[in-house]
TrEMBL record:
SUPFAM superfamilies: Protein kinase-like (PK-like). It comes from Saccharothrix violaceirubra. GO terms for molecular function: kinase activity. Keywords: Kinase, Transferase. This is Aminoglycoside phosphotransferase (APT) family kinase protein. The lineage of its organism: Bacteria, Bacillati, Actinomycetota, Actinomycetes, Pseudonocardiales.
Length: 245
Protein backbone atom coordinates (compact mmCIF):
# COMPACT_ATOMS: atom_id res chain seq x y z
CA UNK A 1 0.00 0.00 0.00
CA UNK A 2 1.38 3.41 -1.00
CA UNK A 3 1.57 5.90 1.87
CA UNK A 4 -0.17 9.27 1.62
CA UNK A 5 2.41 12.05 1.61
CA UNK A 6 1.51 15.68 2.24
CA UNK A 7 3.38 17.81 -0.31
CA UNK A 8 1.77 21.19 0.40
CA UNK A 9 -0.85 22.07 3.00
CA UNK A 10 -2.32 25.44 3.92
CA UNK A 11 -5.78 26.97 4.09
CA UNK A 12 -5.94 27.69 0.35
CA UNK A 13 -4.64 24.45 -1.10
CA UNK A 14 -3.53 20.93 -0.21
CA UNK A 15 -1.45 18.65 -2.43
CA UNK A 16 -1.13 14.96 -1.58
CA UNK A 17 0.96 12.25 -3.21
CA UNK A 18 -0.15 8.63 -3.30
CA UNK A 19 2.31 6.54 -5.27
CA UNK A 20 2.60 8.13 -8.70
CA UNK A 21 -0.56 10.21 -8.33
CA UNK A 22 -0.79 13.78 -7.05
CA UNK A 23 -4.12 15.02 -5.69
CA UNK A 24 -4.59 18.78 -5.56
CA UNK A 25 -7.47 20.07 -3.46
CA UNK A 26 -8.10 23.78 -3.98
CA UNK A 27 -10.47 26.04 -2.05
CA UNK A 28 -10.88 28.10 -5.24
CA UNK A 29 -12.51 25.74 -7.74
CA UNK A 30 -11.78 28.10 -10.61
CA UNK A 31 -8.06 27.65 -10.03
CA UNK A 32 -8.09 23.96 -10.96
CA UNK A 33 -10.22 24.78 -14.02
CA UNK A 34 -7.65 27.40 -15.02
CA UNK A 35 -4.81 24.95 -14.45
CA UNK A 36 -6.32 22.24 -16.65
CA UNK A 37 -7.09 24.76 -19.40
CA UNK A 38 -3.56 26.19 -19.32
CA UNK A 39 -1.90 22.78 -19.49
CA UNK A 40 -4.00 21.91 -22.54
CA UNK A 41 -2.71 25.02 -24.32
CA UNK A 42 0.93 24.94 -23.20
CA UNK A 43 3.44 23.81 -25.90
CA UNK A 44 5.74 22.27 -23.27
CA UNK A 45 5.58 19.00 -21.28
CA UNK A 46 3.05 19.09 -18.44
CA UNK A 47 1.69 16.49 -15.99
CA UNK A 48 -0.95 14.14 -17.40
CA UNK A 49 -4.43 14.88 -16.06
CA UNK A 50 -5.87 11.62 -14.68
CA UNK A 51 -9.20 13.12 -13.66
CA UNK A 52 -10.65 16.43 -12.59
CA UNK A 53 -13.64 16.69 -10.28
CA UNK A 54 -13.56 20.15 -8.67
CA UNK A 55 -12.25 20.91 -6.16
CA UNK A 56 -9.88 17.94 -6.75
CA UNK A 57 -7.41 17.55 -9.61
CA UNK A 58 -5.51 14.26 -10.04
CA UNK A 59 -2.22 14.40 -11.92
CA UNK A 60 0.34 11.75 -12.87
CA UNK A 61 3.81 12.21 -11.38
CA UNK A 62 6.52 13.57 -13.65
CA UNK A 63 9.75 11.75 -14.33
CA UNK A 64 13.09 13.30 -13.43
CA UNK A 65 13.95 15.70 -10.65
CA UNK A 66 13.36 19.38 -9.96
CA UNK A 67 15.79 21.79 -11.59
CA UNK A 68 16.55 23.18 -8.13
CA UNK A 69 15.19 24.63 -4.89
CA UNK A 70 15.05 28.22 -3.77
CA UNK A 71 17.67 28.79 -1.10
CA UNK A 72 19.76 25.76 -2.11
CA UNK A 73 22.49 25.35 -4.76
CA UNK A 74 21.19 23.68 -7.92
CA UNK A 75 22.83 20.39 -8.84
CA UNK A 76 21.40 20.50 -12.36
CA UNK A 77 23.82 20.96 -15.25
CA UNK A 78 24.19 24.13 -17.26
CA UNK A 79 22.64 22.21 -20.17
CA UNK A 80 19.51 21.54 -18.11
CA UNK A 81 19.16 25.26 -17.37
CA UNK A 82 19.62 26.01 -21.08
CA UNK A 83 16.84 23.50 -21.83
CA UNK A 84 14.61 25.28 -19.31
CA UNK A 85 15.22 28.59 -21.06
CA UNK A 86 14.30 27.03 -24.41
CA UNK A 87 11.06 25.64 -22.92
CA UNK A 88 10.13 29.07 -21.56
CA UNK A 89 10.72 30.58 -25.00
CA UNK A 90 8.37 28.02 -26.59
CA UNK A 91 5.73 28.96 -24.04
CA UNK A 92 6.15 32.68 -24.61
CA UNK A 93 5.96 32.24 -28.38
CA UNK A 94 2.64 30.35 -28.16
CA UNK A 95 -0.74 32.08 -28.53
CA UNK A 96 -1.53 33.53 -25.09
CA UNK A 97 -4.46 32.17 -23.06
CA UNK A 98 -7.66 34.19 -22.68
CA UNK A 99 -7.10 34.81 -18.98
CA UNK A 100 -5.66 38.30 -18.34
CA UNK A 101 -2.95 38.71 -15.75
CA UNK A 102 -2.71 41.66 -13.34
CA UNK A 103 -1.60 44.93 -14.88
CA UNK A 104 0.95 47.47 -13.63
CA UNK A 105 -1.57 49.48 -11.59
CA UNK A 106 -2.87 46.44 -9.72
CA UNK A 107 0.65 45.19 -9.10
CA UNK A 108 1.77 48.63 -7.87
CA UNK A 109 -1.03 48.65 -5.29
CA UNK A 110 -0.03 45.18 -4.13
CA UNK A 111 3.63 46.18 -3.89
CA UNK A 112 2.76 49.22 -1.78
CA UNK A 113 0.63 47.18 0.62
CA UNK A 114 3.28 44.47 1.05
CA UNK A 115 6.07 46.98 1.64
CA UNK A 116 3.94 48.67 4.30
CA UNK A 117 3.47 45.30 6.01
CA UNK A 118 7.19 44.49 5.86
CA UNK A 119 8.02 47.87 7.38
CA UNK A 120 5.35 47.63 10.09
CA UNK A 121 6.58 44.18 11.12
CA UNK A 122 10.27 45.13 11.01
CA UNK A 123 11.04 42.16 8.77
CA UNK A 124 14.00 43.82 7.05
CA UNK A 125 15.96 47.03 7.50
CA UNK A 126 14.05 50.02 6.12
CA UNK A 127 16.89 50.75 3.68
CA UNK A 128 16.61 47.25 2.18
CA UNK A 129 12.84 47.58 1.73
CA UNK A 130 13.12 51.07 0.21
CA UNK A 131 15.95 50.11 -2.15
CA UNK A 132 14.17 47.03 -3.40
CA UNK A 133 10.81 48.77 -3.70
CA UNK A 134 12.40 51.33 -6.01
CA UNK A 135 13.92 48.54 -8.06
CA UNK A 136 10.63 46.58 -8.15
CA UNK A 137 8.70 49.63 -9.34
CA UNK A 138 10.78 49.71 -12.53
CA UNK A 139 9.22 46.36 -13.55
CA UNK A 140 5.77 47.94 -13.55
CA UNK A 141 5.90 49.42 -17.02
CA UNK A 142 3.91 48.58 -20.15
CA UNK A 143 4.77 45.20 -21.69
CA UNK A 144 3.66 43.08 -24.62
CA UNK A 145 1.55 40.26 -23.09
CA UNK A 146 2.70 36.69 -23.72
CA UNK A 147 1.68 33.25 -22.43
CA UNK A 148 3.24 33.21 -18.95
CA UNK A 149 3.25 30.34 -16.47
CA UNK A 150 2.88 32.86 -13.68
CA UNK A 151 4.56 30.83 -10.93
CA UNK A 152 7.60 29.33 -12.66
CA UNK A 153 9.51 28.44 -9.52
CA UNK A 154 12.65 26.43 -10.09
CA UNK A 155 11.15 23.42 -8.29
CA UNK A 156 8.20 23.42 -10.71
CA UNK A 157 10.52 22.50 -13.61
CA UNK A 158 11.54 18.83 -13.87
CA UNK A 159 14.51 17.54 -15.85
CA UNK A 160 16.11 14.21 -16.77
CA UNK A 161 19.25 13.78 -18.85
CA UNK A 162 19.32 17.54 -19.42
CA UNK A 163 15.84 17.51 -20.99
CA UNK A 164 12.67 19.07 -19.61
CA UNK A 165 10.25 16.30 -18.60
CA UNK A 166 7.49 18.56 -17.34
CA UNK A 167 6.44 21.82 -15.72
CA UNK A 168 4.06 21.83 -12.75
CA UNK A 169 1.46 24.14 -11.21
CA UNK A 170 -0.25 26.12 -13.97
CA UNK A 171 -3.00 27.72 -11.85
CA UNK A 172 -1.51 31.21 -12.30
CA UNK A 173 -1.03 30.97 -16.09
CA UNK A 174 -2.23 34.06 -17.94
CA UNK A 175 -1.17 36.83 -20.30
CA UNK A 176 1.73 38.68 -18.73
CA UNK A 177 5.31 39.94 -18.92
CA UNK A 178 7.88 37.47 -20.26
CA UNK A 179 10.50 38.90 -17.90
CA UNK A 180 8.40 37.79 -14.91
CA UNK A 181 8.66 34.09 -15.79
CA UNK A 182 12.39 34.40 -16.41
CA UNK A 183 12.79 36.16 -13.07
CA UNK A 184 10.84 33.62 -11.02
CA UNK A 185 12.73 30.74 -12.65
CA UNK A 186 16.14 32.23 -11.81
CA UNK A 187 15.23 33.76 -8.44
CA UNK A 188 18.00 32.85 -5.99
CA UNK A 189 20.02 31.31 -8.84
CA UNK A 190 21.49 34.35 -10.66
CA UNK A 191 24.51 32.28 -11.64
CA UNK A 192 22.25 30.39 -14.08
CA UNK A 193 20.64 33.44 -15.70
CA UNK A 194 23.13 33.31 -18.59
CA UNK A 195 22.27 29.64 -19.20
CA UNK A 196 18.54 30.34 -19.20
CA UNK A 197 18.92 33.28 -21.58
CA UNK A 198 21.13 31.17 -23.87
CA UNK A 199 18.29 28.68 -24.14
CA UNK A 200 15.73 31.47 -24.51
CA UNK A 201 17.65 32.50 -27.59
CA UNK A 202 16.94 36.19 -27.98
CA UNK A 203 18.22 39.46 -26.59
CA UNK A 204 16.59 40.13 -23.23
CA UNK A 205 16.97 43.22 -21.08
CA UNK A 206 18.21 41.95 -17.72
CA UNK A 207 17.10 44.96 -15.69
CA UNK A 208 13.39 44.00 -15.70
CA UNK A 209 14.41 40.53 -14.54
CA UNK A 210 16.27 42.01 -11.57
CA UNK A 211 13.28 44.26 -10.89
CA UNK A 212 10.92 41.27 -10.86
CA UNK A 213 13.29 39.46 -8.47
CA UNK A 214 12.75 42.34 -6.03
CA UNK A 215 8.99 42.44 -6.66
CA UNK A 216 8.57 38.68 -6.20
CA UNK A 217 10.44 38.68 -2.90
CA UNK A 218 8.77 41.77 -1.47
CA UNK A 219 5.29 40.47 -2.29
CA UNK A 220 5.79 36.84 -1.21
CA UNK A 221 7.16 37.18 2.31
CA UNK A 222 3.90 38.01 4.09
CA UNK A 223 2.03 35.14 2.37
CA UNK A 224 4.73 32.66 3.38
CA UNK A 225 4.75 33.92 6.98
CA UNK A 226 0.95 33.80 7.29
CA UNK A 227 0.80 30.26 5.87
CA UNK A 228 3.22 28.72 8.32
CA UNK A 229 6.46 28.61 6.33
CA UNK A 230 8.58 29.98 9.16
CA UNK A 231 10.12 33.23 10.30
CA UNK A 232 10.28 35.92 7.58
CA UNK A 233 13.86 36.80 8.36
CA UNK A 234 14.93 33.27 7.49
CA UNK A 235 13.20 33.05 4.11
CA UNK A 236 15.40 32.79 1.00
CA UNK A 237 13.43 35.76 -0.33
CA UNK A 238 14.79 37.91 2.49
CA UNK A 239 18.34 36.87 1.62
CA UNK A 240 17.75 37.77 -2.03
CA UNK A 241 16.51 41.24 -1.05
CA UNK A 242 19.59 41.78 1.09
CA UNK A 243 21.82 40.86 -1.86
CA UNK A 244 20.17 42.98 -4.55
CA UNK A 245 21.89 46.28 -5.26
Amino acid sequence: MDPVKVVVAHDERVTLRVGDVFLKVDADRDRTDDEVAAMALAPVPTPRVLWHTPPVLALAALTGTALGRLGEPSTASAAAWVAAGAAVRRLHDAPPPPRPGPGPDELAARLAAECEWLTAHDVLPAEVITRNRRLAETALRPWTPVFVHGDLQVDHVFVADDEITGILDWSEASRGDAHFDLAVLTLGHPEHLDDVLTGYGTEIDREPIRAWWAFRCLTNIRWLAEHGYGSPGGFPESAVLESLR
